[in-house]
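Table S2 (continued). Query chain:
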Amino acid sequence: MLMMMMMMKKKGSKSLAVMAVLLASVNCVLPPSKEDLRQISLQGEKYLDKQIVAAVNGVKEMKSVMQKSSEDHQTFLDTLEKTKEQKEEAILVAQEMEAKLEQQQEVCNETMRALWEECKPCLKNTCVKFYSRTCSSGSGLVGRQLEEVLNRTSPMSIWINGENVDVLEREGQRQSKEFKNLEEKYSEMADGVDSIFSDSMKVSDHLHYDPPAFFFPNFLGPTRSIRSLFQDPFHGFQNMFSPMMGMGKNFLSSVGSMMDVNSDTAPNEDGSVNEDVVITKPFGDGRMTCREIRRNSAGCLRFREECQKCKDIQHIDCSGTKPLEGPLKEELEEALAIAERFSQQYNSLLETFKEQMFDTSSILDQLNREFGWVSSLNNKTTEHLFRVQTVNSTNTDERNQPGGTYVSVQLFDSPPLRFSVPSDIPWNDPKFSEVVAQEALDRYKESSVLVK
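Corresponding output:
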């Protein structure tokens, strides 16, 4: 009887031990075997294959966005070139009319020069006096700037309504420089998308092999998806256009806006008024600000009606011909108005295109941040895309702190990645491999797509 009880007790202890092992296995306290790790890795690879396919499709969408942009870009170039040609034709006509006026002026050049030498100091003194009475500072600068402008200005030009041909030509040079800069940025963006697309399509071709074949050349690191096309580090497509936004304001507006201000400026809370935005009224209903006069003292030419010698230039008689009262003046002003209109249209086109590129680059950045990592897999090979090296699980400790599952994995060519996953997903759960693979992929994305 005693022997039977002892045998039953021994069998009970063995059963308890077996049950403990089974319980530990169910709770995944025991680490997985090599075969378990291999199966987890295979399941993770299948999950990553789907993510790679999705990323390739995302890059195709990037290419589609850039293709649509390229079509719009060509339309923009055609319109811009036509506008430029129309502006230059108008400037040529203006120059021709200006030359004819100067020929008529030569008949009475000595008389006109004499009047001009008396007109210039009157213009300067009248403008500076008005400015110093209305604005708090900068009258000396205004006087010096105006003197330089007058020394470059022909006597008759102060009575020509419209921009000076020289001003229009300088504006054309600025526009050409801005256009060149914009085109360089656009080409850089297009090349970047082409590079990502080309590399991603090669990755797509690799996926047709079973198993997928990737090759890792030593000179490629895991932290570059857009390589030599960009400076290091690459801060995103949109940053190419951010500094340019707002820079294309009309160069001509500094003069034209002097007559277009429609409302007075309210004082600050302390009762003071910022003289940079003081509204002045030197010519009846005409208005300009202190800041505008300082930035472009050519606005002082509008004081011509205040100086008798300047008015005499307008009506000077050159052997029976009054150049500023004939059709040449009207034709010149008309040509200048056309040239200025096309110049402003050119600026508007540049601004519109920059806004479109800013929006497009934002979309490209979003797609690149999500899918561009796949291009970094080009020309890479390894025996396994994804390999789980170790899995260690811990139980709840004495302080009732939840346990965790710590894994070490290798993804593509990256160094081993070590991180934890939620403890409520045991390693033998089919979802475990997907969770680990996704976490590893997220960490890989952070280093393979340099967009900040």
